[in-house]
Input
Amino acid sequence: MDTITHFAAGACMGELMAGRRIGRKAMLIGGLAQLLPDVDFIFGTWMSPAANALSHRGVTHSFLFLILMTPIAAWAVRRWSNTTLSWRTWIIFLGIEVAAHLFLDAFNAYGTGWFEPFSHKRITFNSIFVADPFFSLPLGIALALLALTKAGYRWRSTISLVALLSSCLYLAYGLHNKSDIDQLARQALSQQGIKPQSYFTTPTPFNNWLWYVVATDTVGSYVGYRSVFDHDKDIHFEFFARNDSLLAYTPASETREVELLLKLSQGHYTVEARGDTLIFNDLRFGQMLGWQHPRSGFVFHYYLRPPIDNKLVLQRGRFEGWDREEAEAFIRRIGGR
Output
């Protein structure tokens, strides 16, 4: 989830858990507590782009981090907040907030390292886009109302509860949509004689109705899109060759980066050559306008040769080519064919 959504969810949870006991401090502390696992962005400052991408949502998003850091944070908050709440109460309060962060992040395509450093497996439900206004809006409205009302206002807990329940229902709705899309994707792949080694489905930007489907075998990946409002059951797939052989042309200075990128992609990647430029694509993060232009490039593209700056590898392709016409086409595609 994005930072603002995490803070808003944390503030609502804080108000619900301790607002009546410590007032508006509960909202502020709850919001900040939910941001605690994202301290990994600080360490990323000293890492290479590929290492930073792989480490994000790693150890600081693990159960080990939850267990070790919660008592320390509880001790610090108890001293700073000057409240009557016990250390044990603060441990429970902050533990719930951090656990909620780990849980929410697992719904996105990026994956969350719950079991780091003992296992590098990333947990992902792939059922909600990292920034979905339909999930975030109730929490944002509640945050604004909590900020505008006084500590003694009797409806503060109700406001928080309604917002949290609304967002939880949306998460459940996303899982329902994913179940339907997964079933249709498996049927379409079978009917077209595609036998992938692995596949995944995940929502396209800002909604839970148009889904991105990737099926990967030993030589490449099949990419398609499916809206919950589509009338027919067919899914058109574009094939993208993996082109592993092109990795032999990677400069020696980028060898370590390639190893990290292969781990990050979880097998869903392609390598492409554009003239003298060699590019590694991680397919898990989607295409740039792929629902409208099936052969368009991928959001996550890392330049292996020449050594172009890759610091913004996770963000630079997300909105490339977007304009009013493309936005309208996107909305139409969400609505079905």
User: Anything to note?
Assistant: Residues 212 and 225 are 5 Å apart (CA to CA). The beta strands are 198-203, 210-216, 220-227, 238-241, 269-274, 277-287, 298-305. The chain has ten helices and seven strands. The mean pLDDT is 94.
